[in-house]
Amino acid sequence: MKKKVLFILPSLRGGGAERVMVTLLKHVDRDKFDLHLALVSKEGPYLTEVPYDVPIYDLGAKRVRYAFVPMLKLIRQLKPDIVFSTLGHLNIALIILRFLMLSHTRLIVREANTVSEIVKLSSKSWLWKFLYKTFYKQADLVICQSDYMKQDLIENFKVPEQKAIRIYNPVDVDTIRKKANLGENPFLHSPTSPNIVAIGRLVYQKGFDRLLQAMPQLLKEKPNAKLWILGEGPLEEELKEQCIRLGIVEKVEFVGFQKNPYVWLKHADLFVLSSYYEGLPNVLLEAIACGCPVVAVDHPGGTREVMEALGLLDRLEYAELTLPLHLFRPLNEECLKQLSQLFGLERIVREYESYLSNL
């Protein structure tokens, strides 16, 4: 008998968690699992990437708090063996609903970020700490993207050690490289060098403010350098005003969300991860898959694990971002081999399947 697995997500907007879930939907073994997908709000650029054999259920809500009743109705109707969700607020909502689900249904929650850092920044920090401590331990399994995240949940949020497991995010190296070869070099019409790329939502977490702060010093050594920021978000105007104050308006381009960021990474001279915290940064792994030189600022989360595992600790900046010129040198071949071995698609999908089978 195949196990019926219902994946539940807020939407398929362009985030790392959504991309991981779509990757799993594409590659989990259909001989063993019957896959279904429910979305709180059926929207986002990754909708077109959901495989044709996965039914999509639109819960028709704008926010998770309004989706409790439709979620419960769907779960009772489908009678899944496993409900699998990701993103903290949705995970907590499903754990609260747990006692109303069928007794045989198991619940897996995947945490998408470093929880201590998320709750620290919330205006209701005490409430979120209480919710995580009270409810996360009641899930059947809590998947963490890095050892750092796993220890954070065990030590600070009382998740039992036997329930917390670490599975790295999958990197579909072959697909990424194919997409990187689609379309022309985006820098062809810009006579600048080096071209630096940063990718992510324009929110505090991603630290674009400190990346902008590092640009004037780099421009003293590389006057033709240019920074390209791929992403959308609430801080766009604030970041543009910072560019004005720093006198670097002509050296920074905000190009919005790009469905194929890989062609940018293939042709860039450097990718910068300036985040204040991360879970496990997919975009860093994808930049490496494209062969793009990288630099990251040391921060809470799994980034140090990635850099250490791939022999890139010399590309980890501490305290502040300075962008020294040695960072622009190419990555070595050993790093690219290690990426495929540790984060390769087949390995990570098999890990997920193993837990889905044995739960």
TrEMBL record:
Residues 15-174 form the Glycosyltransferase subfamily 4-like N-terminal domain. The keyword Cell division does not apply. Transmembrane segments: none annotated. Keywords: Transferase. One of its GO terms (molecular function) is glycosyltransferase activity. Residues 191-308 form the Glycosyl transferase family domain. PANTHER family: GLYCOSYLTRANSFERASE (PTHR12526:SF630). This is Putative glycosyltransferase. It comes from Parageobacillus caldoxylosilyticus NBRC 107762.
